[in-house]
Amino acid sequence: MRKLLFAISSIFLVGCHPSPDSIRAPGSAQDMSWSTKEGTATIAGSASMRLFDHRSYPTLQGGNMQFAVGNGHELTCAGHDVQLLPQSPASDPVVDNMFRYGVMTGPKVASADVAPFVRHVTCGADGQFTFSNLPVGVWYAVTEIGSKNIAVKEVRTLPDQTTSVTLQHRWNYPPSWRHGPSLW
Q1: Cα separations in angstroms, 172 against 121, 149, 151
Q2: pLDDT recorded at residue 169
Q3: Annotation: CATH topology of 31-48+74-176
Q4: pTM score of the predicted model
């Protein structure tokens, strides 16, 4: 019996151990100073989402049923600002606020603690963007697709490598982009 309890508790503890990918930066906004240094990493990405037209059909119970029609059409980030924020305890709530409220600007986004460390590029007509000369670290890529559809992706850069990233808007609830619809 003791061996069984030990085995179960060992499995539980091993399952709770954080992976190296989940380790976050400690400290304050000053800890984002690493992000201002010149580096050799590149992030090349795209951002898009597919929208479908819907048709409504009456049901026998008196309600309506909605169906997606056709292949839909794709929206991209073309012409929108793409922001790259260094991951830190100061930038985490800023990114969550952007996603939750569908905003790329505002008091939380323009906070004096975070704004000096944010990098910007304009998304090309093809929905592509590139950030070059980045230091190694964990970043948040954030952009708007269409209107008020904020897409966020955490990206880890490596020295002398190009990291490819695809940003896709999923939905705005729950209030954090970190939790997808599979939780509901």
Answers
A1: 24, 8, 10
A2: 77
A3: Immunoglobulin-like (2.60.40)
A4: 0.71
